[in-house]
Design brief:
Order of helices and strands: HEEEEEEEEEEEE
Keywords: Signal
CATH superfamily: Autotransporter beta-domain
Number of strands: 12
InterPro entries: DUF481
Protein name: DUF481 domain-containing protein
Oligomer: single chain
Number of helices: 1
Helix content: under 10%
Structural class: mainly beta
Signal peptide: 1-18
Length: 252
Amino acid sequence: MARYILTFLLLATTAANASEESTPEAPIEPSPLTSTIGLGYQALSGNSDSQTMNGNVALTYTKGRYQTNADAKFIMAKKNGEEDKRKLSTSLKSKRMIRDGYYFYGNGSYIDDRYGPYYADSIVSTGIGYRLFNYETFQTLVDIGPGFRHQDPNLDEIKNDSIVKQEVVNEMVLQSTIDIQWKPLKTLTLSAKFNVISGQSNTTLESTFNATNAITDNIALNVGYTQTAYSWVPEGMKNSDSTTTISLIYTL
């Protein structure tokens, strides 16, 4: 009797193991949402010369043919014991791939600056883009489209180093962007972005360069440089401003 029981248990165990081996585990899909938090140092030069700390949050959501990128940057600094800077910048851009590398996009940005030349500086635009290069380590996106710009001047804070129209600006604009991403090493990512906004009041070219080196799986060091060139500036002012940032980036 004991022999039959042992035989039965052995057959049951073998069948159970065979069942487990024949049922592969479902692969874990990566999350469509990634987010990063950054904190660092920022230096301004050109028409303004100052240094301050800055913080930023960035989100990327990718699902099928859709991708949305959002970010927010905040600057606050004191001078002689009093608040001297408080600036919030936000942007959102959504893309939907169509076919053969083409995509539609919608873009919006907003700047709230308590002590800057504009209380509010916002732009919305939409258009079509093309993925010029799409390799594993190199990608280039080019897009263009019409938009609308609103600027509300801060007449109480306009200084000699402010590039500002002293009236409310509401105008149609043409916006175009070139976005380049290159990953020459496993831990190093280089990027360049050129954004042109052309309107009746002013035309700006913002050039941004970033180098991000991964220290661990979640922490990276970022060095960035941004230069903004203007077609119109008040008399006696420079036609460009630049910003240099050094930040630690933490990926959630």
